[in-house]
Every structure is written in C-alpha cells, then in structure tokens.
Amino acid sequence: MKMSFPQEASPTCYWLQRQTVLNLSLLKLHSHPGHSDPSLARRVLITNTLRHIQDELRGEGVPVPQSFSSDGSLLSVVDGYRESPAGCGVESHSEGSLTPVSRLEEDKHLLLYLSPSVTRQQPPSSSAIKDSFTSALAEIEDLCPTVGITTLFSSEAGHSLAQSDLNSDESRQTHLDLSEMNSSMDSASSLSDSAQTVFGHTPSLLADFSLDDFLFTEIDSLLFDSVPCSSSLSASLGASKVVSMVTDDFVKTLTGYGNGGSQSALPSNQAFKLDLNELDHIMEVLVGS
Amino acid sequence: MDGDGDGQSRWCLSQVKGAVDDDVAEADIISAVEFNHSGELLATGDRGGRIVIFQQEQESKSLPQCRAEYNVYSTFQSHEPEFDYLKSLEIEEKINKIRWLPQKNAAHFLLSTNDKTIKLWKISERDKRPEGYNLKEEDGRYRHPSSLTTLRVPVFQPMDLMVEASPRRVYANAHTYHINSISVNSDNETYLSADDLRINLWHLDFTDRSFNIVDIKPANMEELTEVITASEFHPLQCNTFVYGSSKGSVRLCDMRASALCDQHSKLFEEPEDPSTRSFFSEIISSISDVKFSHSGRYMMTRDYLTLKIWDLHMESRPVETYQVHGYLRSKLCSLYENDCIFDKFECCWRGDDSEVMTGSYNNFFRMFNRDAQRDATLEASWENGSPGCPLKTWRVSAGSRRKRNEIGVDCLDFSRKILYTSWHPQDNIVALATVNNLYIFQEKPN
C-alpha cells in the first residue's frame, strides 16, 4: 500500500494533498458502513479535518461552502434524539429518534460541502432575525445576492420551470448518483432520495414525507437546509467528479471545485429559480396545514 | 528500533487459540482480551457477542520452565444482536470491553458490554450434586410415597465439573451513543460506563438507575468537535477517574468536587509540535486507550503513533513518550484512505509497572522497558515461532524488505493488526489478539 505521492515540499504537492484529503473526507462522511450506527467519534474526526481544510481555504481566499459552520454539520444526524435531561440519579431512557429526516439533512449537507458557493458573509441583519424562516430567506439572499432573490421569493410562482438547461440536467444526474449511493440505507433512504429529487425537479415532496416528520422536525431547518442544498446541485456538477474519482485528474477536479465565484454563480441561479418554486409550494402547504 | 543486540527477546510463544486458517468468520474476530485479578482466568470477547474464558491449569511438573497452559473454561453468549426499531439500525452484539470484578467468593464475576448494554455475568463451578432423595429417583421421576420403606439423607456426590455462566444484572438503556469503556471502581460497588459524550456511574446492584457524571454534549450538536474515547477509574482512589478525548487530552476528575464532573480537576495535554503538524494531527492525537499504572502514580495513554506515560502530578507534558510505529508518519494519507488511521489500539502495564506493551500492524507488538529504556518489536505468528522458542525481534525499515527479520514499511500488512492486549497481573505472561487468534506469550525466566 503505497503513498499516492511523496512527502511534500512544494506548495503544489501540499495543495494536491489537501485536495485529496478533502475528497476522501467527503467520501467517508457520505458512505455509510452498513446497517449499524456509524461511529460518532469517526464522524467528528473527519468533520474536524474538513473544517480545518475549509479554514485554510478560506484563509487563502478560496470560496468555500458556507454550510460548514453556519449550517448544521453532519453531526446533527445524531441529534435527532429526544432525551430526558441528564442529571443525578435520573434514569436515562432509551432514545427516540428522528432518523429519517436527520438522514435527509445529512445527505443535503454532503451536497453543501460539494458546492463552491459565494463567500460566506452573513448579512448584518441576520443577527437580528428571530424568525427562523426569515433567516432562511436571508441565507438565500446571501447565496445569491446578484439575483435579487427576495423579489423572486416573494412573487408568485411564475418562474419558468422549463429552464432545464444542461447544467440542471447534470445536476439531476448528480442527485441520482448520490441517491444511489444512499439507497443502501433503510427506509431513511427513500426520504433522502425524494428530498433530493424534489429539489431537482419533481414536486412530489409531500407524497414522500410523512406527517410525523413535519410535526417533529424544525420546519425552518428543513427549508433552511434545503435551499442552499438545491442551489449547490448544479454547482456540484464539477464536484461530483470529486466524489466519484478521487484519484483522478486533479486539475479537472480543481476546476470544478476551486472556481467558486462567478463561474458557478450563474448555474446556481438557474437552479435557484427552479427550487424556489418548489419552496413556494412547500411553504404554502406547510403554512396551510 | 531493536531491543537486544542479538535480536532475541526473552519472550516465547506459549499458545495460540482459534482457527489457524485464513478464512475467518466475522463473528469469530476477537474484540476484547482481559486477565482477571489473579491471572488465573483469561476472558476474550468476539464480534459474535460470545465470551470465552480460559483457565490456567495447575503448574505441571513435566515442563518446569513454562508456566501452565490456558485451556477453555467456559463459553457463553453474552450479547445478542438487537434491532433498534426507532432508528432502523442494528445494535451490534460485538463485545467492546470485558472487566473482571475482584473475586469475593468461589464464583467469578465479570462485566461485559457491547455498544449499548452492560451485563454482569457470574461464572460458577459445580462439581457436586445431591443424590439420594427420598421422593425422587435419580433421573428425576417422582417415587410413589407408598413405595417408601426407609428414609435416607441425601448426600453430595462428586460429578464432572460444570462451569455455569449466568447473567446476574443487565444494565440497559442508559447510553445514547456507543459505549467505549467500562471500569470497575476500587470500592467494588460501583463502576463507570462511558460513551462518546457521557459517562455514567452505576452501582452494581441496581440496574434501573445510573448517575450521569460527565456530559460533554453541547447544547447545539453542530458545535460538537470532541468526543470521549476512553475512561478508567483510579486503581486506588475511589473518587478519581480519567477520560481521554478525540483531541488528545485527558481529563482527571474528582467526584468529590461536584456531582457532575464536567469541570476537570486536571487536564493532561501536550502542546502540539508545530513541525509535525499535518491534516491528520488531530486524528492521530486521539486517545485510543488510557490505563493507570498499578501503583496509581502514573497513567499511560495510547494515540495512533505513540505511547505516553504521564505522572499524575504533572499535567503539562508526559514524562515518557515511546514511538510505537513512527515510520507510519509519512503514510498517514494512505492510512486515512483505508481507515486504518481510526484503529483504536489498547495498551497495558506489566504487573510491576516496569514495562508497557501495545500492538501495531503486521501482527507486530511493541514492548517498552521503562527502566532499561529499551524496546522490542515482536511478531505474533504461529508460523515463525514454535512454543518455547524465544522470539526474534524485528526491525522496520524504509522501502522493501532487506534482511532476515527486517521488513520494509511498504511490505507491512495493515489488515493484520493487534488492537487488544492484556498483561498477567503478576507473572510475565501477555495475551493479545490478532484478527483471527488469541496469542499467549511467556517470558523465559532467567
């Protein structure tokens, strides 16, 4: 078992190694070992490694997914537990869990990691936002400042869904790839698949979610997470190669990932319009129920 | 890194247990090894949830040089696989840890745990049975009272030894996350169990309640960056315990200070050497095992590449650091890729605390003599050593194999690893588990 590359001295080697570690970490976080509970310790270590690389990239001025620290990390997967408060002499109960939707979040986070969104800058007003839905809105604004999201969002769903250009198609492809990777999971996978396809193109969200999930899940987090997720779909076009071809051409990989900013902003905007329609639809249903 | 000049160690292979072929069932993979407090019994747990206890035979006169052998004493199914219906996940039956209770009477007690449930097992012998009942025949059929003419007193007659294992307590439903450690307190009444985020204190007699003494779960799970990886009670002070974390720090807590020991009394952490910083610095600093010395004065921590001995009075840095397999430092990326970097190696002290031992890859294990400041690399292999024959020490070099008993880093087999080790409390006998087998080594008496 040999090292992929020698002990680096040059910046290029360091850069390559960092990219490799990044790719490996993403792969590891996404792949599920089997039917038993994946180890929390392992996930924490991998996530910390990812964060470290993200901090480095950010320090170098490379746009990175803002979802790492602002959003839920994958660790929120295990936080689906409702538990009695820990205290002296209190009997600990076995935990209920919200796995299906938690798994949903997990998958979305992978897509978030893969996306080279614009630089992360929380709008100053966000700190004053108390309504979680409005904070989701602010997040959308943040991601796509040039498009004037607020107007898009507040207007009726009159956007052209037919903007299925090549990028969107390929982003769907990415969805399906990742969905397949998830399909080894139990019932949770069907939910994650449906969630991903929803924000790709299929307005079948409601059919796949059970009422319980809405009752027990933070609605805002569902929206909050899903929108940035969907925006990353097309942008993950290049990153999907990252996931599937770890040892492949690094240049291609880096092109897909490293070029944040302008190149990927446009495709993400188009996907945005698509997804905002869905979002509108969901909101109507949720608010109405 | 060699020990003796002539490449020979004082250790020799005593026994190998388990199948010696390469085709090993997943369930047979050993996952726990532990001597009891007298060293007479050796317990092993496997991924199938079974426990096999070996007993040391009485010293045989024919082989005065070797200590007595260990033979199977009892085998039982400790844990069964469970299914968590709420989470749609299997709970593995794999035995994570075994800890013996000090012996108080003729029976032996041990605690065994899987990811979620701890069980107290009683292992007792039966070598007599009552015979001569008046109302029952020997085969159990009842006699008709009218057929009785005389009365007799039942007496105990010897029978073939039967070893029975019965579960006396089941401590369940107290851990949300996976249990990684259990440790019996020196008061012989309580024990702790630790999972990734919490440590609970139990009384052995009560299964329906436990005290939470450490909780590092953040209010917002998104902020979680550190988990508990190992925990142990002090061998002499019943109020003191330590727990190691995934960030390479060990916290010592005093239960007298407060009920909830989130505030540590001491924090053992060595500042990172900036020259060795890499992407994997945190992962390789994660504490995989922590063990107090028998004296209670020191503790040993194992992280991925090193063994560190700490003086409990000094928190700033360890007093001794031993490189287990420093040649892996340049291979960390590959080890990350194949997940070996997450392997959790155990370590153990010799009875008099003068030596420590831990496992490595390629079925190597490392012995460190603290007094003589020498170390040796030995191999657990039934091919390369015959019982009674002293083991040769190995060297690991860069590149490919060059000489006899020297192997290149690139030739190491990372699928053959020794994670679980235990040292006899009094004698120089060590037991360790490769993936397939249990090996018992003895030191030649001088």
Describe the overall structure.
The complex is a heterodimer of chains A (289) and B (446). Chain A contains 13 helices and no strands. Chain A has helices at residues 11-30, 40-59, 67-70, 99-114, 132-143, 149-154, 166-182, 187-200, 205-208, 211-216, 219-244, 250-258, 261-288. In chain A, α7 packs antiparallel against α8 (187-200) and α11 (219-244) runs antiparallel to α12 (250-258). Chain A is globular. With 446 residues, chain B is mainly β. A five-stranded antiparallel sheet of chain B has the order 28-1-33-32-31, with no helix packed on it. In chain B, strands 2-3-4-5 form a four-stranded antiparallel sheet, with no helix packed on it. A four-stranded antiparallel sheet of chain B has the order 8-9-10-11, with no helix packed on it. Chains A and B meet through α1 and α2 of A and β7, β15 and α2 of B.
Give descriptors for this structure.
heterodimer; A: 289 residues; mainly alpha; 63% helix; 0% strand; globular; B: 446 residues; mainly beta; five-stranded antiparallel beta sheet; four-stranded antiparallel beta sheet; 2 helices; disordered N terminus; WD repeat (chain B); repeat (chain B)
Overall pLDDT level of chain B: 91
**What is the C-alpha radius of gyration of chain A, as a whole number of Å?**
19 Å
Query: Quick check: average pLDDT of chain A?
Result: 52
Order of helices and strands of chain A: HHHHHHHHHHHHH
Subunit organisation of the chains: heterodimer
Keywords (chain B): Repeat, WD repeat
Subunit structure (chain B): PP2A consists of a common heterodimeric core enzyme, composed of a 36 kDa catalytic subunit (subunit C) and a 65 kDa constant regulatory subunit (PR65 or subunit A), that associates with a variety of regulatory subunits.
Protein name (chain B): Serine/threonine-protein phosphatase 2A 55 kDa regulatory subunit B
Organism (chain B): Cirrhinus molitorella
